[in-house]
Design a protein that fits this description.
Radius of gyration: 17 Å
Mean pLDDT: 92
Number of strands: 0
Order of helices and strands: HHHHHHHHH
Low-confidence stretches: none
Structural class: mainly alpha
Helix content: over 70%
Number of helices: 9
Shape: elongated
Oligomer: single chain
Distance between the termini: 56 Å
Strand content: under 5%
Length: 136
């Protein structure tokens, strides 16, 4: 019998993590995430991503930023991860850094209205209204 691949092991609980997250059963979701991360030495992008969402929803913005950055390290070309890094930077008031992340996401991804919108919000907070208007 063939052993499951490392990728299959990392992803086998993603469906349940997603289901628990959608049901807002964050306690059980985080327990499963920690179990999954322990099994794969922390190298599981989706559980890290969901853990970061939960942390941000509970007001732990700095921790969510670190987790989204970890997910981005695992998959640097995933625009969804970059969007969330930018969003956490924005929420922390680090608007220049958020703009850089949104620009990187636009370089590697497709033309996404959400990236432009969030970039425009950052320019507004920096009082660079002409650049903000270009983004909107």
């Amino acid at each position: 019998m063939q052993q499951p691949s490392a990728s299959a092991i990392r992803e086998r609980q993603n469906w349940l993590i997603h289901q628990l997250y959608v049901k807002q059963d964050y306690k059980q979701c985080l327990e499963l995430i920690e179990q999954q991360l322990a099994e794969c030495n922390g190298l599981a992008e989706y559980p890290i991503y969901i853990k970061a969402l939960i942390k941000r929803q509970s007001g732990e913005i700095q921790e969510s930023l670190q987790l989204f950055q970890a997910a981005t390290c695992l998959n640097p070309h995933n625009v969804a991860n970059l969007k969330q890094v930018g969003r956490s930077l924005y929420l922390l008031g680090k608007h220049k850094a958020a703009i850089e992340v949104y620009e990187e996401a636009l370089r590697i991804g497709h033309d996404d209205w959400e990236l432009w919108h969030n970039k425009g919000l950052c320019y507004m907070y920096l009082k660079q209204y002409d650049k903000a208007i270009e983004c909107f």
